[in-house]
Amino acid sequence: MDWILILSKAFWCGWGAVGFAILFNVPPRTLFAIWVGGAIGGFLKFTLLQLTAGVVLASFAGALAVGISSIPIAHFRHAPPMIFAIPSVIPLIPGVFAYRTMLGLMKLAGTIGPDFNLVLSETVNNGVKTVFIIMALAMGVAVPMHLMRKESVKHIRLGKKKQANFT
Amino acid sequence: MNQQTNSEAKEFGSLLLDVGVYLLSSGASCSRIRITMRRLAIAYNYSPHISIAPKSISLALNDEADNALFSGMRTTPAQGVNFKTISGISRLSWNASENDLSVQQVRDELSRLIALPHYPRLVILLFVSVAGSAFCFTFGGTLLEMIITFGATFCGLFMRQEAIKHKFNPYICVYIGALVASLFAGAFVKAGLNINFEHAFATSVLYLIPGVPLINCFTDLIDGNILNGVVRGINALMFALAIALGLLSAMLIYNLK
Q1: Torsion sign across C-alpha atoms B215, A57, A65, A25
Q2: Residue B165 and residue A101: Cα distance in Å, rounded?
Q3: What integer pLDDT is reported at residue A164 of this predicted model?
Q4: Between chains, do A22 and B127 touch, taking CB under 8 Å as contact?
Q5: What separation, in Å, do the N-terminal and C-terminal C-alpha atoms of chain B show?
Q6: Which of A83, A114, B61, B95 is deepest in the core (most CB within 10 A)?
Q7: Residue B94 class from Cβ within 10 Å (0-12 exposed, 13-18 middle, 19+ buried)?
């Protein structure tokens, strides 16, 4: 295992998340939590990739970790969980696979040469990976919110006693 | 039902519709819009009926005995993703239901939230460009490729912001952003620098990915808001198509394969 590489990739995933958070105009008090979320997602994804898990499974695990951790953070930072979860999973989006799919599709639109079958299988492979990873990211973020929801995260008790409003 | 109740309901209904359309145009999922509007309505003793369309919200308010008091509809103002609005409105709805704010107080707070400034333009440009080079690193790019991606993202986002200012069609704005970013990255590839152009090209346009529509699409589908989910999904697909077209145009111009 190359821990230095994994940790530096996780570090940069955090900065990718913060960049998108600023593009989405999040409140400044949530920025640090978003950096941590992005780094956790990246760390889990690249660790699992080094353990030779598939890229879809690794991305799903990363997104799931982000989705689950966004719920307690939302509770304590007083903002909806999606504000933490959406910027944090964006560094896991499979840009290179999407790019290869697009190039492959353009090649397929050309003439049929000797390597047509190879291009076809590669394009289908990259395209299916792209779609599955994006679905896995969305599910990893959306499912924890639905599993733990009692109308809103504010109703989930996380050890902190809710103050009574009436005496 | 007297005249007073009716005018109060009208005032509150109009406020509630404003809350809904601002959430919708800032990129909130349908369930969040519904939860927030319902929470506010119940806090003021109304029973709400809400229908959320892709670009408009309809609302009927009944009193507790189910007598109709108000019905109205509003279309969304043109606005981009803005999480500050979503977070602010979410806090506002809690504040209103726990502290008995008056309708006028909620209205004032809402106008304050809408007027909150974005981050300064230079900050947005710099941080998004850093995010671009961060993507480049995670896909295995070298330092040189990271610097090229930084520059490409900076120029592309700058041109996209200019296009948005001139109120072009949003897909055309994304096309312009993708074209400028990949033209920048392609110039270095064409100049014969020893770089992996897949890294430089594929990551220079990543700042344009429609992340919010993509994830909201699935959130809505899981919640059973199928129509809104499908609309958001197609919208994300159109953005992806615009990015691909921008990239392809640049590759055609530079004759890269």
Answers
A1: negative
A2: 32
A3: 40
A4: yes
A5: 73
A6: A83
A7: middle
Closest to A91 measured CA to CA, from B207, B148, B155, B178: B207
Cα separation of B47 and B62, whole Å?
Answer: 5
CB B207 within 8 A of CB B153: yes
Indicate the average pLDDT of chain B.
Answer: 88
CB-based burial of residue B120 (10 Å sphere; 0-12 exposed, 13-18 middle, 19+ buried)?
exposed
Give the model confidence (pLDDT) of B129-176 as tens digits: 999 999 999 888 888 889 999 999 999 999 999 999 998 999 999 999
Q: How far apart are CA B30 and CA B84, in angstroms?
A: 17
Q: Within an 8 Å CB–CB cutoff, is residue B215 touching chain A?
A: yes
Residues A126-157 have pLDDT tens digits of 999 999 998 899 889 888 877 776 555 555 55
The residue among A81, A87, A88, A74 whose CA lies nearest residue A146 is A81
Phi, psi of B198 (to 5 degrees): -65, -45
- Axis crossing angle, helix A31-50 with helix A55-77, rounded to the nearest 10: 160
Looking at the partner chain, which of A12, A134, A151 has a beta carbon nearest the beta carbon of B137?
Answer: A12
A102 touches chain B (CB under 8 A): yes
Residue B9 has pLDDT above 90, yes or no: no
